[in-house]
User: Fold these one by one.
Assistant:
Number 1:
Amino acid sequence: MNSQNELEPLASLSSVRNAHASSNENPSPTENLVEQSAPAEEPIAIISDIHANLEALTVVMEEIRRRNIKTICCLGDVIGYGPNPRECLDTVIENCMFTVMGNHDFAIFYEPFNFNTAAENAAYWTRQQFESDADRTRRNRRWRYLGGMQTRVMHPRFMAVHGSPRRPINEYIFPDDIYSASQKIALIFERVNHLCFVGHTHVPGVFVELPDFYSPDDLNNRYDITEEKAVINVGSVGQPRDHDPRCSFVILHPKHVEFIRLTYDINTTVDKVRAIEALDNFLGQRLLEGA
Ligand SMILES: [Fe+2]
């Protein structure tokens, strides 16, 4: 496993892709600068916070495929909480152009930090799932991918982080911050050039510098891209927390961002969580509530 502290600020898309697809090489660990991945008119699917929910991820991947979208970016927390970490990480390795590191990916690769008991137990159980796979090639590929996740990726069309541009792995940007922490929002926007995609809160929507926040409902699921800076939360594929239990993700089109919600077989995931002793039943229950 490579250290996250090695610095290699510039890597081409092909090196990112090769590293992630074949896992023969580890890409730069802290930040990556992705060269033009696709013509600007090509749509890009941006997903986040899968949390080892295979039923949710499968539905999202089918929709992306149905729309014939070739490029998928992932904003982290692929694993943690949910019952299918191996399958979800393998799907991401095989389909995503890059994944930035989330706090749960960090916890499982390194050590849980500021986790509650349920999250910590889930992190150790997830680590054990990876370590107990009898196939050494699969084991190595997963650890290399996790260890190679960047904290920030600079794509020509946007910045990608899990939490915030200021503290990319751990900082939450909550909708209420526009009222209660306007200075925090100002400091975050100082670090944004134009578009920044985030996850982490599991609450989709768009922050603008004013400051203001617009939910997908406010926007009729469409944010029109202008010159103004925007921090766009794509929501969560596998554990939504905006009281809508459907999977959330976005598609970046040339001139707008489309917010998408999809239903999936939640009960199957909940049953899996309940059958695994190390996973708190609450982690299943919250899927039903979207909270
Ligand atoms: Fe998360």
Note: Residues 54 and 87 are 7 Å apart (CA to CA).
Number 2:
Amino acid sequence: MTVHEFKDSKLSKRLKWAKHGTFLAVGTGQWGKTVTMNALAAEAPFRGRNVVLINYSKDFVKKGYPSNYRAEKWPGKIADLYKIIKPGEDFIILDDAIFMASSRDTQTKENKEIQKFMTILSHNDLFAGISIQNTSLLDFSMMQSQDVHVLHKFMDPVALQFERPSMKLKQTVANAMLVHYWKRYPDVNAKSWTWCSSKPEMVQFHIPWWWQSTMSKAFRGVIPK
Ligand SMILES: Nc1ncnc2c1ncn2[C@@H]1O[C@H](COP(=O)(O)OP(=O)(O)OP(=O)(O)O)[C@@H](O)[C@H]1O
Ligand SMILES: [Mg+2]
């Protein structure tokens, strides 16, 4: 029993009346970013919302996800966005956002449209969860327009050297705190700990009961477009 449940967190209090916001889950592959975003989406501030897994295969999401989940393909034109996203109703997950907002693709039409959409997320009362293994891989416009709550999972020390300067110290602290908690709570699954640098605090996210290991590999054999 620990006192780090989301419902007791500063982040949860901060979100109690929030109608929009962005969560950035960052850390090395398989350390729990996707699980954390999905666990977060089930928490009280988002109750009643539908969860939209962008660019996941529709058939994939029909197998084993809760009934409030759906897969949508990011549209070719921003004007078509409201065909797939419902203002005030959705929690959007941009998992492995490098496929949509890579720092290397900053001038592409798709990337520019996502940048614009991020600026009107608040107008549409939407929450977005974004996962990326290192923020240097992500177009920084994804972090510029809304309240951003950074959820750190462990980052490999080699990858950490290549973090954006603004994130390096935060992730270094996150790694140190995570190691500290693993030692302090050896019986707790190490991947459940999440350092939220925007508060700062440690929060535990439990793996959803319906989670299957295949859900951690949604892009197995698939290159998202
Ligand atoms: N909170 C948790 N409690 C228990 N196990 C977890 C937890 N989070 C993750 N895991 C385990 O780790 C696996 C990988 O987690 P996840 O898919 O979230 O990683 P990821 O950081 O998104 O990886 P990638 O960058 O490769 O997509 C899960 O399938 C699960 O087995
Ligand atoms: Mg993932």
Note: The chain has a mean pLDDT of 94.
